[in-house]
Design brief:
heterodimer, A: 121 residues, mainly beta, 7-stranded mixed β-sheet, B: 6-stranded mixed β-sheet, 4-stranded antiparallel β-sheet, 49% strand
């Protein structure tokens, strides 16, 4: 069964850095576009970043542009999110999510379980 | 950027009721509208994609429709396990914005 498993979350001080990983299994990772989505405690979902299957096209939410970097290693079936200059408002559960195409559209059909990032002194 | 206005923010309904949640896009997004269900402590689950296509494994009491920039998620006969928060999302172009969410409570 296809699966995504995030890791790398934890407690970090404001201004610090953290690198999240998302390990994919039981599907052909290198043909899928991927995303990071976050959810602050008690709040709604916020899309963070997108990367194409080859890694050549990347987008970021304005709230993280210039501080976060998305990347992937298709040989390792892994997605990453390098987070620098972290702020209290970056505290959230971070999910990786796969994009699938169908019915002339595309959507996030597979999600990981999430990893919690807490930014606090 | 396309903003998604979702309503209501919360509602309470009884088992067997017909429930409707609405999402309005700030600009045309064609049919690039998806609906997700999330229960506490869990990842979101895809229910409807392309405005009206039912994701595999999702009960047929869930349906979606579209009219211009207005989109609707309908649960035809509410079940206890439908207690959750529901989100719409546009996938027309990045940023792939979500609605604010609708918390559905079972009376």
């Amino acid at each position: 069964e296809a699966q995504l498993v995030e890791s790398g979350g934890g407690l970090v001080q404001p201004g610090g850095s953290l690198r999240l990983s998302c390990a994919a299994s039981d599907f052909t990772f290198n043909i899928y576009e991927m995303n990071w989505v976050r959810q602050a405690p008690g709040k709604g979902l916020e899309w963070v970043s997108y990367i194409s299957d080859s890694g050549t096209t990347i987008y970021y939410a304005d709230s993280v542009k210039g501080r976060f970097t998305i990347s992937r290693d298709n040989a390792k079936n892994s997605l990453y999110l390098q987070m620098n200059s972290l702020r209290a408002e970056d505290t959230a559960v971070y999910y990786c999510a796969r994009i699938t195409y169908g019915s002339g559209s595309h959507y996030f059909d597979l999600w990981g379980q999430g990893t919690l990032v807490t930014v606090s002194s | 950027d396309s903003q998604m206005a979702q309503s209501p923010s919360s509602l309470s309904a009884s088992v067997g009721d017909r429930v409707t949640i609405t999402c309005r896009a700030s600009q045309s997004i064609s049919s690039y509208l998806n609906w997700y269900q999330q229960t506490p402590g869990k990842a979101p689950r895809l229910l409807i994609y392309a405005a009206s296509s039912l994701q595999s494994g999702v009960p047929s009491r869930f349906s979606g429709s579209a009219s211009g920039t207005d989109f609707t998620l309908t649960i035809s006969s509410l079940q206890p396990e439908d207690s959750a928060t529901y989100y719409c999302q546009q996938s027309y172009s990045p940023p792939y914005t979500f609605g604010q969410g609708t918390k559905l409570e079972i009376k």
